[in-house]
Amino acid sequence: MRGLRFVVMAAAVLLSGCGYNTLQSQDEAVKASWADVLSQYQRRADLIPNLVATVKGYAAHEESVLVGVTEARAKTGSIQLTPELVNDEAAMARFQEAQGQLTQALKSLFAVAENYPDLKANQNFLELQAQLEGTENRIAVARNRFIQTVQAYNTTVRSFPTNLTAMLFKHKVKPGFTVENEAAISQAPTVDFGGAAPAPAP
Question: Looking at 83-87, 140-144, 175-179, 181-185, which range is the least confident one?
Fold first, then answer.
């Protein structure tokens, strides 16, 4: 029994010294920051049906733009948003592409809305505008935090001697946001039409 206890203690010290605990904590940090990213993107997606309906009430003939936003939202919803997505480079690329397309579609929608003064003065539209603006800010913060946690984790996975521990326990480098797609989806749609608007919801 004493020998077994010694082996367990020795293993614990060895693993700690080789970065095992660091890998675990950083892996959990990546998962937590990714969950926040997904939550904020979902928050944006939830605002879109009401936004589209409001714009349609004033600009029903702008069908191509309205359909474009609806289809882009549907594409983001078709991707299964699970914690495992953060470990799948191909799935991550599809996620980024879909979110980038939705961002571009929203930009087109707000560009069209600029041509409808009555729409810009609509209280429901103003509230949705403020909520979307706040959500885009939250997305930016969540994405930056995720990028930082992935960078920290990947540095640990690649560095000696923790890379040996990472290989032993099958910890691999995680995909982050690619440079191309990061540039596309980090540019929030312009939602400021001038004039007073309600403050973003907390």
Answer: 181-185
Please provide the average confidence, as pLDDT, over all residues in the chain.
82
Q: Provide mean pLDDT across the span 149-172.
A: 92
Does residue 156 or residue 8 have the better pLDDT? 156
Distance CA 89, CA 174 (A): 8
Sign of the CA dihedral running 14, 15, 21, 27? positive
Phi, psi of 126, deg, nearest 5: -60, -40
Sign of CA dihedral 155, 161, 165, 170: positive
User: HSE on the CB side for 197, CA within 13 Å?
Assistant: 21
Indicate the burial class of 161 (C-beta count within 10 angstroms; 0-12, 13-18, 19 or more). exposed
Q: How far apart are CA 60 and CA 82, in angstroms?
A: 36
CATH topology for 2-185?
de novo design (two linked rop proteins) (1.20.1440)
Query: Shortest CA distance to 69 belongs to which of 112, 38, 8?
Result: 112
Within 10 Å of residue 115's Cβ, how many Cβ atoms? 11
Sequence spans of domains, the chain: 2-185
- With H, G, I as helix, E, B as strand and everything else as coil, classify residue 145: helix
| Residue pair 180/92 in contact by the 8 Å Cβ criterion | no
